[in-house]
Design brief:
Layout lengths: L1 H7 L7 E7 L2 E6 L5 E6 L3 E6 L4 E7 L5 E6 L5 E6 L3 E6 L8 E7 L4 E7 L2 E9 L4 E5 L6 E4 L9 H8 L3 E6 L5 E6 L3 E6 L5 E6 L6 E6 L5 E6 L4 E5 L13 E4 L4 E3 L8 E6 L5 E6 L6 E6 L5 E7 L5 E6 L6 E5 L3 E6 L34 H13 L15 H7 L5 H7 L16 H4 L1
Parallel strand pairs: 17-21
Antiparallel strand pairs: 1-29, 2-3, 3-4, 4-5, 6-7, 7-8, 8-9, 10-11, 11-12, 12-13, 14-15, 15-16, 16-17, 18-19, 19-20, 20-22, 23-24, 24-25, 25-26, 27-28, 28-29
Length: 443
């Protein structure tokens, strides 16, 4: 509730650079609490930054080539890094060592393009390889294994089968509930797989999109934005997907975008995009070859362009929105992480009721009864009546943020796809603490 009240008096999107972190990074992402940032570097090192102190609290030393993606578990205990060295490493930040303990190392035969945790269980990992293959890696004892996600080929359409057989996966993401995996292909298709059964439940054609380069979802999972090679970001309202059937039927449907986001003048492409916590604003990191630009669109008002943030001459490489407030982390081509925020002016009128700020001195006019002496009995009676009045501190303010526990309670007890991920849960629980390490302890 306090977060919602604070947002009433500030801009819903950042407008200025607050600080810069010299990290030599190529990618950076906020953790779910918004207190930490994980940065991946081209030399294979990962760095955990504390935003309160703006200091480096952990070094992730395990890769020998550049880091390609970073992800956090739902309570920030585990960090996942993927690399061009063919490895995916899961780090445990609750360990009392620096570098942190490696919870797991997953090795492949080709470089890893991206990897991400399942939203509800960090023992389940989605991996996209440079060869165009996608795998769900399950580290739980009962389901341990690597499961490849394969597109269903329509035998009745020989020409379509030949065309689609040349398609490779170029983008992969879990949707926020974790029940489905979305894969983008090099031929402009979005394939939807059931995470539990690993079967395809839908195939969507995106007209004119070309190669799919990125997917992002709002927190509710009902809307998705895609980044494609035609330099247009498209937003879609997603249908409700049925449970898998015995004969593996799937939906064949062309999706029509509700909004298209692009720069009609410069026609720039996009390196990354990210939704605001409430899903009403979309930030697009432009692949501009002259400056560092972030476009902010208002998705609630027909996708109108609200602002363009200019970060200077260092070109943009990545962008990520803070999980709780109007703040953005953008990475430059020189490796600096820029933290954008909303500057707030000091409002002296908030310190006392009835206080009024004036630009020039004015002559004060005294009220007739302003300095009259009030009877002490009447004063005590009036204060007593004021104290007895009921104060409503809950109604009138709605907090849109839904905790993970609330989301879990909303799951149906008969929903096999949701409950499957909760079997053999991870130990990433709320309340864990990262130990503060002194220099001699790190050595």
């Amino acid at each position: 509730m306090n977060r919602t009240v604070a947002n009433i008096f500030t801009s819903p999107y950042p407008t200025a650079i607050q600080t810069s972190l010299e990290s030599y990074a190529t990618i950076a992402r906020f953790d779910p609490s918004g207190k930490l940032i994980a940065a991946g570097r081209q030399d294979g090192l990962g760095v955990i930054w504390d935003l309160a102190t703006r200091g480096q609290v952990r070094w992730l030393e395990g890769h020998v080539k550049g880091i390609t993606s970073i992800d956090w578990s739902q309570n920030s205990r585990y960090v996942l890094t993927s690399s061009k060295d063919w490895n995916v490493i899961i780090w445990d930040l609750a360990s009392d060592t620096d570098p942190p303990h490696r919870q797991a190392t997953i090795r492949f035969d080709v470089p890893v393009v991206s990897a991400s945790f399942h939203p509800r269980n960090c023992k389940i990992v989605l991996v996209l390889l440079s060869s165009g293959e996608a795998y769900i890696v399950d580290l739980r004892k009962e389901y341990r294994g690597r499961y490849e996600l394969c597109e269903v080929q329509d035998e009745s359409d020989d020409e379509g089968q030949m065309n689609r057989s040349r398609a490779v996966f170029t983008a992969a993401r879990f949707e926020p509930s974790g029940k489905h995996v979305f894969l983008g292909t090099s031929l402009g298709y979005i394939l939807v797989f059931n995470a539990r059964t690993k079967t395809m439940v839908a195939r969507h054609k995106i007209s004119g999109a070309g190669i799919m380069r990125g997917l992002e979802f709002v927190a509710s999972g009902r809307r998705m934005v895609t980044n494609s090679s035609d330099r247009v970001l498209r937003q879609f309202n997603l249908p409700i997907y049925p449970s898998p059937t015995a004969d593996n039927e799937y939906i064949e449907q062309e999706l029509e975008p509700t909004h298209r986001f692009n720069d009609p003048i410069s026609k720039v492409g996009w390196h990354a995009m990210s939704y605001s916590p409430d899903g009403e604003w979309l930030a697009g990191g432009a692949a501009d070859d002259a400056s560092h630009k972030i476009y902010i669109w208002d998705t609630a008002r027909e996708g109108l362009l609200a602002s363009t943030l200019d970060g200077g001459r260092e070109l943009l490489a990545y962008v990520h929105w803070h999980p709780h407030k109007p703040s953005i982390a953008s990475v430059t081509n020189l490796g600096n992480i820029l933290i954008w925020h909303c500057p707030t002016e000091e409002r002296w009128g908030a310190f006392a009721g009835g206080f009024e700020e004036v630009d020039e001195n004015v002559e004060y006019e005294e009220r007739e009864d302003e300095f009259d002496i009030e009877d002490e009995a009447d004063m005590a009676r009036r204060k007593m009546l004021e104290e007895e009045e009921a104060v409503d501190i809950e109604d009138g303010v709605v907090d849109n943020a839904i905790s993970a526990a609330d989301q879990s309670r909303q799951l149906s007890e008969n929903d096999e796809d949701a409950l499957w991920a909760l079997e053999e849960p991870d130990d990433d629980v709320q309340g864990w603490k990262m130990k503060v390490l002194l220099e001699d302890e790190q050595d």
